[in-house]
Amino acid sequence: MKIRIAATVAIAAAIGLGATGCGLVAPQSTLEVYAPSDGVDVSMTGVDLRNVMLIADESGENFNVVFGAVNRTGKPAKLTINFAGEGSDTASADFTLPTGNTLFGNPEGEEAPVLVNLPGLKVGSTIKAYFQVPGADEKNHNVTVLDGTLKEYQDYVLPIDFTKADEKPSAVKQETADEKASESTINDDQQP
């Protein structure tokens, strides 16, 4: 009788282990870290970049560099992203990352969008990007190239004349400041 009970317990244990034991040796995909959106995530010493992607402007020739940054260094950090296109086509984008969380690429945001030009780059493709922060190892990832087809990215599609429009106000401000300075009479009566 004792042998029968022991055999029944042994068989039940073998069936139970066989049915549930595959989790002991099989890889678990829920433990893999991945970017759950269209962009890529990049982590470097003290700086994390989230959802990095390129969004084509209205012409499809220039690309807005869009991402969120988390700077945990306690001081502003410099970031350089080098994009390597087909053949010898390359483009570089430089950013200053304030401490804390910052969004880049939104024309309505605090940080001005940065455009890169890569001839032949098509929407729907990916491009190799190299990320560098001083004091950290360079990281490379394939970055997705998108457009405004999806509603959530339409705000990041910049007009064709975005860079020209961006330059005009500062040039007008400079001319106005120069005119005011030339009309100033402060310290005109002092001898050199």
UniProtKB/TrEMBL annotation:
Which residue ranges have biased composition labelled Basic and acidic residues? 165-182
Q: Which residues form the signal peptide?
A: 1-21
Q: Where is this region: Disordered?
A: 165-192
Please tell me whether the keyword Transmembrane is annotated for this protein.
no
Q: Which UniProt keywords are listed?
A: Methyltransferase, Signal, Transferase
Q: Which domain of life is it from?
A: Bacteria
Molecular function as annotated in GO: methyltransferase activity
- Could you tell me where the Polar residues compositional bias lies? 183-192
Q: What is this protein called?
A: DNA modification methylase
Specify the species.
Leucobacter edaphi
Lineage of origin: Bacteria, Bacillati, Actinomycetota, Actinomycetes, Micrococcales
